[in-house]
């Protein structure tokens, strides 16, 4: 999938020492979260699309491009405060959570250089980090019907 980065973003991606690096933002949404959790991987907060993103260190492993497997990424956020852990306890592990990845330049936060929303699953909480898997549901491998007649489910008709 082609990405249309601005000229300034392309220069910063290809530079060994960029004047202004791309900022990676994460927005975690869930039905049980009144306000989505928003983080920016930087030392200063930033406002994007009218929402404040809290400066917080996190590690993001981008999806790979391997044959015959669904691309997946990993996200680990520092466990600051108790907001995320309380939400995880309340929501039963955050099942159904979605994560939006955004890349912007601090000089032009209204221009989203990269924007992708993925499913967030497999959440693990420690005293220091909260981690999970990012990806897409493999809808091609799901059964088209809820009940299938085969020798296992209906042995009397075979």
UniProtKB/TrEMBL annotation:
<protein>
    <submittedName>
        <fullName>DUF1833 family protein</fullName>
    </submittedName>
</protein>
<dbReference type="InterPro" id="IPR014974">
    <property type="entry name" value="DUF1833"/>
</dbReference>
<dbReference type="Pfam" id="PF08875">
    <property type="entry name" value="DUF1833"/>
</dbReference>
């Amino acid at each position: 999938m082609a990405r249309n980065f601005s000229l300034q973003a392309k220069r910063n991606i290809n530079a060994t020492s960029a004047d202004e690096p791309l900022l990676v933002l994460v927005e975690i949404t869930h039905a049980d979260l009144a306000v989505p959790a928003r983080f920016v991987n930087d030392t200063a907060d930033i406002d994007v699309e009218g929402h404040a993103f809290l400066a917080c260190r996190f590690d993001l492993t981008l999806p790979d491009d391997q044959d015959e497997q669904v691309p997946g990424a990993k996200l680990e956020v520092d466990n600051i405060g108790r907001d995320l852990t309380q939400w995880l306890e309340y929501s039963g592990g955050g099942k159904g959570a979605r994560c939006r990845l955004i890349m912007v330049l601090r000089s032009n936060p209204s221009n989203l250089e990269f924007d992708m929303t993925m499913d967030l699953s497999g959440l693990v909480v420690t005293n220091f980090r909260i981690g999970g898997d990012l990806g897409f549901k493999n809808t091609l491998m799901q059964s088209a019907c809820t009940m299938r007649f085969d020798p296992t489910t209906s042995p009397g008709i075979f």
